[in-house]
Predict the 3D structure of the following.
Amino acid sequence: MPDINASSPPASNVSPRLPSLVQCTVDAARDKKARDLVVLDLRDSEAFTDYFVVCSGRTGRQVRAIVNEIQKQLRAAGGRSSHVEGDRHAEWVLLDCFDFVVHVFTQEMRRFYDLERLWGKATRIEFRDPPPRPPAV
């Protein structure tokens, strides 16, 4: 599976490289301006799941908004998470979606835990960050 270069966005809104519910999760996170969005393909490892979707929010409030949007869009697409952890503090929220797991971090917690380093042999599919908002006038 080829990587999607971090400097260029996916070619379309739906990537044939990802299962539909993983792509739905990516789209939901992007809708809420998630940062440093990456999908780790774990199918060739001995992991307990097929994919990790990992992203960051700037604040706990944004982390909650990202998680809520992911859950909303997954339900609309016929998916759901079986288990949610960390939503109370919103520094690291984990959604277990059976075949994939979503990790939404604050930027500080993501750097601290460095989850991607632990799965360094996984195929990385990276997405470009949303453009910054223009300053308010």
